[in-house]
């Protein structure tokens, strides 16, 4: 079983933001506790007396205005914490991979960027599982776990439609065994890691800031044969010759 933990970053309705990003981490069940523990260890350093009060949300850490983060006055120290959370992936097994979809909202004014991103990532997760099966793994199955949000009902319905009728590419999500599960991010360190991945990708595309993206670039799901990066997709129509890794490996 593989679990894909997802969170989003960017406001669909905010015209000042060009992008909406859905991103997260795919973890085999044997690594779930290990990965969560790595993030928990950072929480224990931030608040030794009560690590449970620490919830890792990258934008809140960067802002330093609320909770435990306002006790860390130096921005450079808070940025270092965001990077440390992302770099827990450095010591993970190779089958811990990440996924993200960055949607340029103005390129698709008549479409819902949340549904676009979810359709893309759920399909890519399904293809990842099929590749695992083709390489000899015995019928691996997947489950998607998403941070609780206003999208809960629509994404569950969307997944049910994909499984019944197929997505727009004609594929069925045969390897994903259930509709998405929604959890409170405060209860899951792996959802908090997904938050950081979405934030890193958002900063890369929305602001051209590679500070956090560089920490995770090598972890996106990639086909070892073709070199195509399947774990990262840049949905846009405004820049034909985009040279980001997602676009250039498909060109």
* SSE order, one letter for each helix or strand: EEHHHEHEHEHEH
Shape: globular
Q: How many distinct beta strands?
A: 6
Task: Say which CATH homologous superfamily is assigned.
Answer: Ribonuclease H-like superfamily/Ribonuclease H
Span of the ends, CA to CA: 32 Å
* Helix and strand composition category: alpha/beta
Radius of gyration: 18 Å
CATH class: Alpha Beta
Indicate the low-confidence ranges by residue numbers. none
Second CATH tier, the architecture: 2-Layer Sandwich
Bin the strand percentage. Answer: 15-25%
Spatial sequence of strands, sheet with the most strands: 5-4-1-2-3-6
CATH topology grouping: Nucleotidyltransferase, domain 5
Oligomer: single chain
> Largest sheet, if any?
6 strands, mixed
How many structurally independent domains?
1
pLDDT averaged residue by residue: 89
Tally of individual helices:
7
Please give the share of residues in helix.
Answer: 25-40%
């Amino acid at each position: 079983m593989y679990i894909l933990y997802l969170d989003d970053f960017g406001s669909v309705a905010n015209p000042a933001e060009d992008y909406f990003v859905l991103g997260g981490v795919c973890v085999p069940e044997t690594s779930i506790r290990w990965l969560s523990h790595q993030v928990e260890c950072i929480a224990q350093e931030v608040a030794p007396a009560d690590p449970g009060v620490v919830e890792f949300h990258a934008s809140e850490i960067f802002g330093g205005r609320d909770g435990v983060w306002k006790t860390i006055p130096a921005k450079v120290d808070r940025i270092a914490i965001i990077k440390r959370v992302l770099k827990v992936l450095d010591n993970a097994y190779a089958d811990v991979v990440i996924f993200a979809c960055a949607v340029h909202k103005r390129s698709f004014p008549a479409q819902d960027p949340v549904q676009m991103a979810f359709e893309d990532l759920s399909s890519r997760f399904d293809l990842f599982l099929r590749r695992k099966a083709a390489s000899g793994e015995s019928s691996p199955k997947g489950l998607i776990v998403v941070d609780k949000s206003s999208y809960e009902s629509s994404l569950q319905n969307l997944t049910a439609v994909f499984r019944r009728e197929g997505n727009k590419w004609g594929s069925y999500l045969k390897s994903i065994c259930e509709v998405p599960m929604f959890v409170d991010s405060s209860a899951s360190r792996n959802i908090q890691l997904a938050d950081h991945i979405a934030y890193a990708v958002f900063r890369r595309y929305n602001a051209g800031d590679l500070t956090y993206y560089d920490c995770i670039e090598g972890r996106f799901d990639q086909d070892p044969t073709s070199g195509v990066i399947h774990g990262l997709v840049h949905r846009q129509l405004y820049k034909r010759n985009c040279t980001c890794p997602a676009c250039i490996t498909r060109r």
